[in-house]
Design a protein that fits this description.
about 20% helix; Elongation Factor Tu (Ef-tu), domain 3; 7 helices; binds FE2/S2 (inorganic) cluster; single chain; about 30% strand; about 350 residues; Ubiquitin-like (UB roll); Rossmann fold; 18 strands; alpha/beta; globular; 3 domains
């Protein structure tokens, strides 16, 4: 079963010097696969010199905009983002998995929600989708966005944010925090640290007390800083939502985890893998992750980031024990039920049985 479907590029527009908004249309029978929820992302694949790269980019359009758009910022040394920014043409067909991600909360047209968004750089992409959808679907909701960038020139979606402010007067407020460009209000210049957040809260620019949920997307240290400030201001953990993948460079797991208790010899570990209704028994090499074991045996296990962030590779351990090195994606209750990120998990016992279908 192919997990990837065809998307035709119908428009490419620069939003800053180093970022584009790509508009996509499902083709070749793919339309049913691309309904999305605000804040989700698409995982693309493409061959570069014979090597398949997979990269995930957030959807920036809202659920009611009638278009599917992703924002792609060039990252240094990033083959995929450079290719999109420099070479991709309208009319080309890309391959992507259906939308994924849980960076959202249910919306209720009758609610009078107040939401906070904190984004840095390209972290705005999923937050923009959330803002667009929420303001449209919750007519009484209000949204305050704190958006950190180096300078005015690197603000993605600057015009779109202004348009939203005008369209939703009194309901949508944006505070641009710029690292280097001086602004009228000193507090809005510099890095978005825990201290700066605390000051924004104390001075009333951001009203945490009335906020229902905060959405944060950006580099991990900044996200932790913002979350700490929100907690200090009284916000409960379950109201603080993170989206990490946009800030993590996909990479391979370099270090084997430090297993507290390794019963398996590693070599010859038997792994039984169920995927798409079919079950196969394979053997894992020493130190090999569950995902790599599956792929090495031509089992088309799903994956995207390989960094423990996106949860695309989630499976459930039915038998045996594994150790997960990194988990930025699964909730505690999922781990308790035996779910693991297969890109980050290695067997601890001689026999392991996993299921991707559950
Ligand atoms: Fe993204 Fe495993 S592939 S968490």
């Amino acid at each position: 079963m192919s997990r990837f479907h065809d998307l035709e590029v119908t428009d490419i527009r620069k939003t800053t010097r180093d970022a584009v908004v790509v508009t996509l249309r499902p083709v070749n029978g793919a339309a049913d696969h691309f309904d999305f929820v605000q804040g989700q992302y698409l995982t693309f694949r493409r061959d570069f010199d014979g090597e398949e790269l997979r990269r995930s980019y957030s959807i920036c359009s809202g659920m009611d905009d009638g278009v599917l758009q992703v924002g792609i910022k060039r990252v240094e040394g990033g083959a995929f983002s450079a290719w999109v920014n420099d070479e991709l043409q309208v009319g080309e067909v890309l391959q992507a998995m259906p939308p994924m991600g849980r960076f959202h909360v249910p919306l209720d047209a009758a609610a009078r929600g107040h939401y906070l968004g904190f984004a840095a750089g390209s972290g705005i992409t999923p937050v923009l989708s959330i803002i667009r959808t929420t303001l449209r679907r919750e007519p009484h909701a209000s949204f305050t966005l704190v958006y950190a960038n180096k300078g005015v020139n690197t603000i993605m979606f600057r015009e779109e944010l202004e348009d939203l402010k005008n369209a939703y007067l009194g309901r949508f407020n944006v505070i641009h925090v710029l690292g280097t460009d001086a602004q009228e209000i000193d507090l809005f210049t510099g890095r978005l640290t825990q201290g700066k957040c605390a000051e924004l809260f104390r001075t009333g620019w951001v009203d945490v007390a009335s906020a229902d949920t905060a959405f944060i997307c950006g580099p991990e240290p900044m996200m932790l800083d913002i979350a700490a400030a929100l907690r200090d201001a009284g916000m409960a953990d379950d109201r603080i939502r993170f989206e990490l993948f946009a800030s993590v460079q996909p990479g391979r797991l370099k270090q084997p985890p430090r297993a507290a208790r390794v019963e398996a010899t590693g070599k010859g570990t038997e792994i039984t893998i169920t995927l798409d209704g079919a079950t196969r028994k394979v053997s894992a090499d020493e130190g090999q992750s569950l995902l790599d074991t599956a792929l090495a045996n031509d089992i088309d296990a799903p994956f995207a980031c390989r960094a423990g962030v996106c949860s695309t590779c989630r499976c459930r351990v039915i038998e045996g024990e594994v150790e997960m090195a990194v988990n930025h994606a699964l909730e505690d209750y999922e781990v308790e039920k035996g779910y693991v990120l297969s890109c980050q998990s290695r067997p601890l016992t001689d026999r392991v049985r996993i299921d991707y279908d559950q």
